[in-house]
Amino acid sequence: MFCYQCEQTAGGKGCTKMGICTKDPNVAKMQDVLIFLLKGLGYYATKLIEDGQVIPRELGEFCTECVFATLTNVNFAPERFVEYIKKTNYYKKDLMNKASTSDAPEGADYIAPETKEEILSIPNMKNLGVMDDEDLDMDIRSLRELLIYGIKGMGAYFHHAYVLGKYDAEIANFMFKALSSTLDRDLTVEDYFNLNMELGKTNFKCMELLDAANTGAFGDPEPTEMLITKKKGPFIVVSGHDLNDLGDLLEQTEGKGINIYTHGEMLPCNAYPGLKKYKHLIGNFGGAWQDQQKEFDNLPGAILMTSNCLMKPRKSYKDRLFTSSIVGWPDVTHIPTVDGHKDFTPVIEKALKLEGFTADEPEKRIPMGFARNAVLSNADTIVNAVKEGKIRHFFLIGGCDGARPGRNYYTEFAEKTPKDTIILTLACGKYRFNKLDLGSIGPFPRILDVGQCNDAYSAIKIALALSEAFECDVNDLPLSYIITWYEQKAVVVLLTMLYLGLKDIYLGPTLPAFITPNILQVLVDKFNLQSISTPDHDLQTILG
Ligand code: FS2
Ligand code: SF4
């Protein structure tokens, strides 16, 4: 196996024997086969689109589900990948019959065997694994993988949007085109660079679509004092990013005496009126994803994982862990989607059988729920506070959390920000500092939690609105981006930021292994993308 798609890749180079995330070589092989098949599927779909045909939504959704399933910490169940591979073969054969083409690139027409054993014995071939075509220029490979990882990230956002009823064929069509392009051996560095920028643009549209899906279904997040301590009673902890699943679970648990806690990236759900109207959505449990094994150990409640980041479950809680949607782990009960509906009865029954928390903890709450609507409805107050010198600078400190020790940078950075500055935060990286009491400026807490990683859209809207209010370019605002990455959603959000021309982004804790020195130099020259150093040094550089 070879995989270097995430930040914790072995030795900062690539996982070759076993994923640090515990993805084993068999699952890695199946994911490679699936992506390889999808590249050809993308080729035939693109041919048909060029001929004026419409690719059915069902296929756009299926392709999205497949790329999302290969994202870090999502699906570790080999059987699920066998099913994806079989279904991809089926769709691909259909497209091949319909598309009239005689110049398909090598590998486009590949059809995989359909049993686990046969799939695992497929020999290496060009374009199958990341490193299989040894003669490929390393800079081309770097940009090709950047494109594929970005597609995986956008696939996650697109999936969350369409399960809430929002679909856009242009996003699916770009996904087909991008997958297809990776089979084209004539593409240059410039071609790939442009495709990555087009991905950034398409992802902006996708995040906008997801924002519309979330706010359309559950209203605009509103500032909320969210409980972060435990309450007595049976409970279910809901992790991942899927608002649709949480909404369904809240409906199915109403009046059953079960408390629902969000976990990880579900935290921002506590601010949506359409979700917080359920009084048993009680607050948030625990910290970021990498703490789950410790926090779930012997947990006396049920756990539902609706998307990434899933870690190898310990025996002490495997029997009370459930997966839904895209997520999978061998021998962990999966709640299937049947005719667009999920029946969470097994999760509910498990929660009722377990003891639950036996006592109330002393209550603690933190402020959250500062998405674009909440912040921009106070735009005048913010603009005046800047003009009066009460707010000197904004920092967007956001992105993924992870296990590496270097991530303390983000805690220290937040602690050291001067008192006349505001921190906007989003995604699970916020857990590094979201419980710190950094005080407030006027009506605003100094830490404004904008939401999940996809709410980077919300943060960008805030930045664009401020630039309008100050009548200046967005890069001339007193705003700096301190970004922390781990998986492929952060990759695509970064591409969107670069596409929008945002400059002076500080990226950490380490730079992606798949970015070669030459490509990094292009990003530095074009966008002034910088690697984090120390909080003191970076703060000094930013604030002068
Ligand atoms: Fe955090 Fe994991 Fe949100 Fe990432 S819960 S690192 O996949 O998407 O952010
Ligand atoms: Fe390694 Fe990350 Fe790939 Fe897992 S997803 S195998 S940790 S690079």
UniProtKB/TrEMBL annotation:
InterPro entries in the cross-refs: HCP/CODH, Hydroxylam_reduct, Prismane-like_a/b-sand, Prismane-like_sf, Prismane_a-bundle
Binding residues annotated for [4Fe-4S] cluster, in chain numbering: C3, C6, C15, C21
Chain residues that bind hybrid [4Fe-2O-2S] cluster: H241, E265, C309, C400, C428, C453, E487, K489
Swiss-Prot/TrEMBL keywords: 4Fe-4S, Cytoplasm, Iron, Iron-sulfur, Metal-binding, Oxidoreductase
Modification Cysteine persulfide occurs at: C400
Enzyme category, top tier: oxidoreductase
Parts forming coiled coils: none
Metal-binding is among the record's keywords: yes
One example GO MF annotation: hydroxylamine reductase activity
Pfam family, one: Prismane
Cofactor binding description: Binds 1 [4Fe-4S] cluster.
Cofactor(s) needed: [4Fe-4S] cluster; hybrid [4Fe-2O-2S] cluster
Enzyme nomenclature, EC number: 1.7.99.1
Catalytic activity: A + NH4(+) + H2O = hydroxylamine + AH2 + H(+)
Compartment(s) of residence: Cytoplasm
An annotated GO BP: response to hydrogen peroxide
GO cellular-component term (any): cytoplasm
Family, per entry: Belongs to the HCP family.
Function comment: Catalyzes the reduction of hydroxylamine to form NH(3) and H(2)O.
HAMAP family: Hydroxylam_reduct (MF_00069)
Protein name, as recorded: Hydroxylamine reductase
